[in-house]
Amino acid sequence: MTKLLMLITSLAGGGAERVASELSLNLSPNIERKIVTLTNKVSYPSNEPPISMNIKSGNRFFLNILYALFVGTIKYKKYLNNYNPDFSLSFLILDNIINIISTSLNKNIKTVVSVHIALSMKFQKFKLNKIVTKLIGIFYNRADLIIAVSEGVKTELITDFNITPDKIIVAYNPVDCMKIKKLSSEDIYDEEWFNEDIPIIINVGRLTQQKGQWHLIRSFSKVRQTEKCRLIIRGNGESKPYLDTIIKDFGLSKDVKFLDWKENPFKYISKAAFFVSSSLWEALPYALTETMACGCPVIATDCKYGPKEILGDGEFGILVPTMDGLFHDSHSLTKEEQMLAEKMTFLLQNKDMRIKYAEKSILRARDFDTSKTIEVYNKIFLENN
Question: How many domains does the chain have?
């Protein structure tokens, strides 16, 4: 029996937390596993209740990080000594550093860290960017294995962080295709737009700079000049006031709507004409792979990293150039926004192409099914022990 201890900040929030949840629920019965969290936040299920360090956070970011690093390392060492696992797997940057430090003197434990974000984009505006990049490279190279969520992230780790290539294994974020298919077939009773015969374009994601939704709205304004359609953006975030301003400036108040997070987003996605991802950067966006599992056609920006890999360089969906990420006051669209508008118009005017890409979406989503990701992780923990 292989013993695995997993370390993550919490079981609530984003993609890495969902991966931790899926691993705890679906790994081989020959892998005994437990989850340790830095905080007590939980929204995702696990095979058993996580062990929480219950680390409290204050109002000062850097002091919080240092405190969590210090206390987290001391506590995690105790858990490692008590549980004595064969592998210690961590998920986020702080978790990874704690994991590497805590296991550094115990050669019986294999240290596995995972990377779920584009690290270069995370620190690009940080004053000490070069120093942080160097430190991450030094720390991560001390791990026995590094799991990257995409080939793009793997390449970045090698080129930008000088990680030894042989240490890196790619394992995609798991997508429960059967569950999504079932949920996507549910009827919609709470949103009248879906009962009207007007095509809906949909975007799902946090309302942040990273997701670039203001570019999507600007492009949509061009589409709306010739096509009768609507845009739904599902999500919450700090960019909402700015997005509201753009919608008002372009006179789109009757054509663009925000939906809060829903327990089942898939029933909305499956009934949209197509999905648009306007992200400026990603790693391997869950929104894209899960949308494709719904059988929804996709248009996505060719950003770092993931969309090109997911869409097979344009075979399984439409790729457009990444937006410039600037906040434009003018109503004149940028070249990239114009190109997005053209592709959106193209899909609205071509039902056959929407059907084609819907079929290709379902086909491609199977490559990201939970069973395939679990197979990769099972191999890591059962064949490297």
Answer: 2
